[in-house]
Design goal:
Helices cover about 80% and strands about 0% of the residues. It has about 250 residues and is mainly α. The protein has one domain. The longest helix is centred in the first third of the chain and has 31 residues. The chain starts with a helix and ends in a 5-residue tail after the last helix.
Amino acid sequence: MRLELWNCIHRIPWRRRISPWRLAAAAGCALAIYFAVCAVVGAVLHFCATGDRQLLWTIAVLGGIFAQLPAGAGLVLCCLAAPPAKRLLAAKLGIRPLRRRDWKVIGACVAANLLLCGPVTGVWELMLNACDIPYRREQELALMIADGSPLLIALLLVGAVIVAPVVEEIGFRRVLFGLFRPLGAWPAILMSCAVFSLVHGFLLGIPGLFLLGFLFQYAYLRTRNLAAAVLLHMVVNLIAAAAALIEPLFR
């Protein structure tokens, strides 16, 4: 598997077509905007949560989700600023139609997520309890999906299942991995997965999110198709949203 993954990394077409300096400069600006927005929204969430201002907290969460729309547009413009030989947006983003083998990779990654994320999170939870480290059991987004109005749930689902996967896969799997790639294949994979798990701001979910980041990265490298990683991300987020909606029924 290690040799196969290494060969997949070296066969990614965009690494040979895009000037790394132009991509690094453009992507750095876009990622700075993206992470700045996430940090500001996180600070507002914390203030609203501790101040017990439910309405402001809700607005901040929604703002954090849909602020990814301009950030995603910025990332697309970054790809346009450093075009490859073919002037096609799909080629710039590494997107092509899904093949049968791509669907198999997506299915295998979904199964791996269902089998591994639960046990990994459970072990991490035991360690946090043993060290007496406080943590939240659920993310704010999951709580809002479970307790929100139908309109709010619909807006959250659009953001979490459609917007976030597209933006995050362009940012983490396409751009951030490319920026870390000069450090080596595995360091780039591990560092991009670590950043992906940390920016979500959910202590209990860090190991599970790291594993998800690795599965998304593997899907992209194995298929050489960003569409596979985006679709996998959408499926995973849809499963998580469905679980958040169903869980109150069993309380």
